[in-house]
Write a structure and sequence with these properties.
globular, eight-stranded parallel beta barrel, alpha/beta, 251 residues, 46% helix
Length: 251
Amino acid sequence: MSTPAFADALRARRPLLGCIVTQPVPDFAELYAAAGWDWLLLDLEHGLLDLADCQRLDQAAPALASVVRVPSLEGNWLARALDTGVAGVMVPRMQDAAQAAAAVRQAKYPPLGERGVGLARATRWGAAIPGVVTEANRATALLLQIEDATGVAHADAIARTPGVDALFLGPFDLSTSLGVPGQLDAPVVREAVARVRTAAEAAGLPLGILAPTAAGARQAIAEGYTPLLVGADLPMLAGAARALREAIGDA
């Protein structure tokens, strides 16, 4: 069940180490909690999850904060995801201030937004409506992901949209958008990243990033990024399986 802890830590820019979950396996959430991670990104954009899976994953690991990455702004996804009781939502492919404002309308209750009050897990099925609704705009986090050239061009306006809690960089999609797929150190990518960092800092927002290796995560923390996503369920499993088989050697 969502608490203000994640949103408060996010705004305080404390390092928050997270992993991506793409599979509807509650045991994965429990394993991440036992390993000491801070948060999970429940991925509706690329994974095999639905909203019921997200609620079950959040229930499986109450010590972790869960953030749902919605597939799009269409269909009231943000409000529906928050009704499951998760700590926040992330919106991919954010391109301009109009989209940012639309995300705020879905994710925040009045007066910031237009989110409807549902009889769902987030409100203890209606029993806690007054308190939950009063605190929800502070207690739930809205993260907007910038991952293409258009989003970079409008990063300042996106960051200044009232109700936005953090920006998040998608470096692989960003590099692809800029014509250098996977070349994260290319000058054009570094310039785009710097522009988004400047926009976040000017607006007083934390900036997160995907850092898929331990070394990359340590560097990102040193550079002031938070929150971070460091790995995903299936790549971690694949890497562990491959490393163990290689360690055994020829049979």
